[in-house]
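Reopening this ticket.

The earlier resolution said the output was attached, but the attachment link was broken on my side. Pasting everything inline this time so it's all in one place.
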Amino acid sequence: MSNTQTTPEVTWAQRSSSSDPEKNYIYLTIAAPDVPKIGVDLKPTGLTFTGHSDTKKTTYHVELEFFAEIDVENSKTHHTSRDVSFVLRKKELKEEYWPRLLKDSKKMHFLKTDFDKWVDEDEQDGAPDDMAGMGGMGGGMPGMEGMGGMGGMGGDGGFGGIDFSKLGGGAGGMPDMGDMPDMGEGADDDDDDDDEDMPALEEDDADKAGASEVKATEKADDAPAEKSKIEEVS
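Inline output:
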């Protein structure tokens, strides 16, 4: 079966700011699974992506011409086995959103809005800071030399990766039940000790009863002897 060329799905979202460059960027994700080595040519006006997958037996290729220019030096990328993600900083500080991602207003079948990251322009201030979890994304976009496998880039698993270890041990941050032995086996041991003491009480009662029977028998045995002595005297 011959290799084919495929246009990958591209999703995007954005933030904007007229004063803070770090809040003025484009989210861009290219769905290209099982591509160990990728080629990216990022320019202020656009991006060209190419990546070959042996398992899918296809070469992913897409060329994008942006609506406006981006700051290549301050843009970042993250490559996983499923996709390649970018945070592209807009060059012009502007409060208004880009009306679209591409310069051409024609609708592209492969381009979709990333609703997981999208926030309306007038709701940006109340939106969470998604950039906070992107510290592990690689920089140095120009040329993109040696991007095979993206070695050295943070292993945070993607945007906003959650560290479950910070959620705490046990259920919902509760103390680990394994550290509470007094509530488990210890209580059972106390019950067992109480059960073991009970038969001892029964044995004491039995001993007392047996002793009484012995004394009664001894008295019964002494009675005929006393009677015989009386008869002898008489």
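Reporter confirms the inline version is readable. The helical segments are 185-233. The chain has a mean pLDDT of 72.
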